[in-house]
Amino acid sequence: MQDRVGRMDMHDQDSKSREGRRRAGLLARFGRNRRGSVAIEFTALAIPFAMLVFAILESCISFAAQQVLSNATDDIARQLRTGQVKAADVNETALKKMICDRLDIVVASGCPDLVVDLREFPTFAAAAAVKIKLTTDGDIDTTGFAVKPGPSMSKNMLRVFYRWPVITDFMRKSMSNLKGGKTLHFATATWQNEPFDD
To answer: How many other C-beta atoms can be found within 10 angstroms of the C-beta atom of residue 105?
Structure first.
């Protein structure tokens, strides 16, 4: 019995050493092969793979930034709607700072490409009629933009725009819709203020 176990152990060791020699032989043959087909095939696959990975990363980061912008807009709109932030305390600089403080995690310091528009409207239909316009050179048309929130019970609309830079060069042409290779991130909220004390 012990003899049989010993023979089995020797057989296992022999097969392991044969397997190791076979692998070493494959690696040696791979290293000696100078035809270049492996390198060409690797390059042919690596370039599209890298482009796909960069496209996925670019899209994911852009989408995450858009979601952060939407959340910030909803949060500021809620504070204005409930009277937590009063109309008298809101000007363009203060509004941009409130939004920028929430965007700092995904944008450049100071939010240099942030544009805001906060206005009171007589009806929701009037607010819905406001459209996003671009200038002839492909930038945001800020004509009519203001920061003038209404008092309690008024109807208001907050629009927040950010010119998001497309980082990957080969994605810039397909992803950008603004001048300078940037894409427009946009969020809006329309509401009627609650009956708070002005």
So the answer is: 9
**pLDDT tens track for 62-79:** 999 999 999 999 999 999
Report whether 154 contacts 118 (CB < 8 A): no
Separation CA 84–CA 62 (nearest Å): 31
Tokens representing residue 79 in the block: 């504070």
What span, in angstroms and rounded, lies between the C-alpha atoms of 196 and 85? 11
Enter the DSSP assignment of 117. E
- Residue 51 has what DSSP assignment? H
Closest CA to 103 of 113, 89, 90: 113
CA distances from 16 to 12, 13, 21 (A): 6, 5, 9
Where in the chain are the domains? 64-192
Given phi > 0 = left and psi -120 to 50 = alpha, else beta, which region is 94? alpha
- Cα gap 131→122, rounded to integer Å: 16
Q: pTM of whole model > 0.85?
A: no
Kindly report, residue by residue over 82-125, the tens digit of the pLDDT: 999 998 899 999 999 999 999 988 988 889 999 999 999 999 99
